[in-house]
Amino acid sequence: MVGPEIERLIQLLSRLPGLGPRSARRAALHLVDKREVLLQPLAHVLADVADKIKTCAICGNYDSVDPCSICADTRRDGAILCVVEDVGALWAMERTGAFRGRYHVLGGLLSALDGIGPDELGIPKLVQRVVESGVTEIILATPATVEGQTTAHLVADRLAGLGVAVSGLAHGVPVGGSLDYLDDGTISAALRARRAF
Amino acid sequence: MVGPEIERLIQLLSRLPGLGPRSARRAALHLVDKREVLLQPLAHVLADVADKIKTCAICGNYDSVDPCSICADTRRDGAILCVVEDVGALWAMERTGAFRGRYHVLGGLLSALDGIGPDELGIPKLVQRVVESGVTEIILATPATVEGQTTAHLVADRLAGLGVAVSGLAHGVPVGGSLDYLDDGTISAALRARRAF
Q1: Are residues A19 and A99 both part of a single domain?
Q2: In A112-170, at which residue ranges do the beta strands (DSSP E only) sit?
């Protein structure tokens, strides 16, 4: 009874992370309720993004320019690369404002199950970039999960012998985190990595 | 660093029910990840919905035709109207397949706080429809909340003396519901409305 257009809208919305079939229906209804102020602007911005956003051929970031604004920014240190799983991790790193180098987006993590190996992750491309662009330091910022750390080890292996310094993000108690709510693995890691006060 | 197009996409997505700022960011990233298979189709269907979907001038339903397919369906009983809060409630009622009359969408509930009175809810329009279209029965299907029931009482008041039968949905234990997980109000209502076995 919903009609084919709204049915299709619900179906596409339900494929967004965080929206199940029921919340997709609510979202579709909300969009139709707010046709002028929400649905039409969203249709325009989606068309705009589809039209303009490209994947940076150098680092894999998303931007309206290629090379992306980070790769093109001469004030950023091209000798330091931060290796991240995906663009979401790149955004998270950028929000901190704490990193002034450039990035390399893997586009995933090693996964035998999903058939994702070193080539799918563009690791040969990273090695080539390190060799050709005078990169001197690599920071591995893959997630602190089994897949993330396996991927980090593989990247580190492939970079061995290229004369590049390789480090990984520290593991420990999150800032503002209470021990009560932390898992054992994090507390153990923080204990092992304890620092002089 | 995200760029103005993606920033705007995140901002609009975060206005959907069920998506906060963080999940809107994830959804935007997912859309850009799946440009061909998700972002572009969604842009098209939104433009399509914006273009085609109208509010039915008779009942307030959303459809690509006006009067909507329910109001236009001669197999449905135009003498019975189900009064609902919004199109979401109409959809929910339609999914049951249990109602073969037509609808009247109020577009909200009475709310002194939000300045929503009888006129904003189109109650005069409902009264006019009842008088002019030979409606003989009204089913009040507003939610079982204070606002929903206040609204139902107001509608019933306005319809008094028009010679139309007015009923409300039964309150009771939801089918499949266990007493353990039900609130006291529902159990009391079910007890008061107990039926001979």
Answers
A1: no
A2: 137-140, 165-168
